[in-house]
Design brief:
It is built from four helices and three strands. The chain has 78 residues and is of the alpha+beta class.
Length: 78
């Protein structure tokens, strides 16, 4: 039986999976340097967080962004 705290939507942040720049780079095939440049210029698609001095990304949020950018192939064309 789960506790009430696990069903509380306000507790959703407790289940977030934060990953390092290197892990996000591996998952998205974007170089670490590109992620750094995107943060500096404010042009990247992935929101980031600073915890103390470490930059981290919410993995599930980044995966949703990648999935939202999916394009279906066009019929009869390249």
């Amino acid at each position: 039986m789960g506790s009430a705290a696990n069903r509380n939507p306000e507790n959703a942040t407790a289940r977030r999976r934060f990953v390092s720049e290197q892990i996000l780079s591996d998952v998205t095939a974007r170089s670490r340097r590109t992620l750094q440049k995107d943060r500096l210029l404010g042009t990247g698609p992935f929101p980031h967080y600073k915890l103390n001095r470490q930059v981290v990304y919410d993995l599930d949020e980044c995966i949703r962004i990648v999935e939202a950018s999916r394009r279906e192939p066009q019929a009869g064309g390249a």
